[in-house]
Amino acid sequence: MLEIGAMKEKDIKKLYFRWLLENEPSDTVVVNEFSSTYWDRRADLLVVNGCIQLVEIKSEYDNLSRLDAQIEYFLNRGHKVTLIISEKHKDKIKNIPSEVGIFWIKEGELILERSPKRRSVETKLLAEYWRLNELRLLFKGVIKGVYKLHLDKLQLLFSSLQQEIADKLTCDLLKARYKKHFEEVRKKGELFIPRVAKRGLEDPRRDYPEFFKEAKKLLLPYGEQMTFSFAS
């Protein structure tokens, strides 16, 4: 039975958002209701601050029937995964992996039980964060005929990068893509679902060209190696 005044998901997000502003680096970017075109699940929050953190929220109003599958999915796609959950569910999450960070919601307060541990994300899964036009701009001038390559071939190219470079490029991309959105978030002081996240209307050449200029510097050593001949 729900108690009067039980917090809803949107209220928990506001509480966690304030916690992030107080405890995370000033260049942290937060996106509400994040998903990739290639995912079949949606993270309640995406937090980017040197790594990719995916956040799942379970209020008193939620059931936990999908929680284990959600956590497993996000652990493969985020460097860190955090679960924010009502204390009412405390006895129901005994199988949550130790790498997952946990916040409890108790009497309207956010209580940190444990911080998330960083994990490695396969480069082929990091490639899923990238859109077709972004991958083309990334590899333009690095390999020939980039605009003739389909998405799957460009993702294969990206997955061939060294882990450290793929991590940095993807984190920097997400920050660049959502920077303007998050500036609006900071001004309003609350989270909302960005128009660009819903419809993908931003233009990388117009909105974050500097990112690609810097990214190409990391790719220069790969220029001679990226001479793959792909079957059409």
Break the fold down into its secondary structure elements and pairings.
Elements: H1 9-23, E1 29-34, E2 43-48, E3 52-58, H2 67-75, E4 80-86, E5 101-106, E6 109-114, H3 123-126, H4 132-139, H5 151-159, H6 163-188, H7 195-199, H8 204-207, H9 209-219
Parallel strand pairs: 3-4, 4-5
Antiparallel strand pairs: 1-2, 2-3, 5-6
Report the β-strand fraction as a percent range.
Answer: 15-25%
Unreliable residue stretches: 228-232
Structural class: alpha/beta
Give the C-alpha Rg. 19 Å
- What's the CATH first level of the largest domain? Alpha Beta
Taken together, the total number of domains comes to 2
Distance between the termini: 58 Å
Total DSSP helices: 9
Total count of strands: 6
CATH architecture of the largest domain, by name, is 3-Layer(aba) Sandwich
Average of per-residue pLDDT values: 86
Biggest sheet, spatial arrangement of strands: 1-2-3-4-5-6
Main beta sheet, described? 6 strands, mixed
Question: Which overall shape is indicated by the principal axes computed on the Cα atoms?
Answer: globular
What does this protein look like?
There is one protein chain. This protein is of the alpha/beta class and about 230 residues long. The protein folds into 2 domains: about 10-115, Trna Endonuclease, Chain: A, domain 1, CATH 3.40.1350; about 125-220, no CATH class. It has 9 helices and 6 strands. The chain has helices at about 10-25, 65-75, 125, 130-140, 150-160, 165-190, 195-200, 205, 210-220; strands at about 30-35, 45-50, 50-60, 80-85, 100-105, 110-115. A 6-stranded mixed β-sheet has the order 1-2-3-4-5-6, sandwiched between helices. Helix 4 packs across helix 5. The termini are far apart. The relative contact order is 0.13.
